[in-house]
Design brief:
This protein is mainly β and 150 residues long. The chain has one domain: Roll (BH3618-like), CATH 2.30.290.10. The protein has one helix and ten strands. Strands 3-4-5-6-7-8-9 form a seven-stranded mixed beta barrel. The protein starts with 9 loop residues before the first strand and ends with a strand.
Length: 150
């Protein structure tokens, strides 16, 4: 078998929302510090929620019940920028800033069914090495409940 014929090892797991999933090992995102509140979970995958790609699920590989709904904040607030600290950039192994992808968590109010974005806790992914970190921004212009309409 030559190198071109070798297949990437796969990881299979079962989730409470999506059933059984099998993904290539190189598609697994590793959180360098874990997600706040879920520090023990470090391995996740992204699953498209809709055909348009507006929303994605960040599904934990090692806990079938843990998944977060994410979206690109720039679709709802075009001027949104994450001032990535040098320590965070170093943790992510950033060589090319254009390889960074920023998504934010979507919150759904159980009472009103309204959607909001958590702009205070963006998730930054390095597409080159599949590392990620959730930042915590202490800025007035980044609310934890930024209302959106879809």
């Amino acid at each position: 078998m030559n190198t071109a014929e070798k297949t990437m090892p796969e990881v299979s797991f079962t989730t409470s929302r999506f059933g059984s999933i099998t993904v290539a090992e190189d598609r697994i995102i590793s959180f360098v510090q874990g997600v706040p509140g879920f520090e023990r979970l470090k391995r996740f995958i992204l699953i498209d929620h809709d055909a348009e790609g507006v929303f994605r699920w960040l599904q934990a590989v090692d806990d079938p019940a843990v998944a977060f709904l994410l979206t690109d904040p720039n679709q709802f607030r075009p001027e949104y920028v994450v001032p990535l600290r040098k320590a965070d950039a170093d943790c992510l192994g950033v060589k090319d800033p254009s390889s960074l992808i920023t998504l934010v968590m979507v919150c759904v109010s159980h009472e009103t069914k309204e959607l909001s974005l958590n702009l205070k806790g963006p998730v930054v992914f390095n597409a080159e090495n599949m590392l990620a970190i959730q930042c915590v921004l202490d800025r007035e212009d980044c609310p934890s409940h930024f209302p959106i309409k879809i």
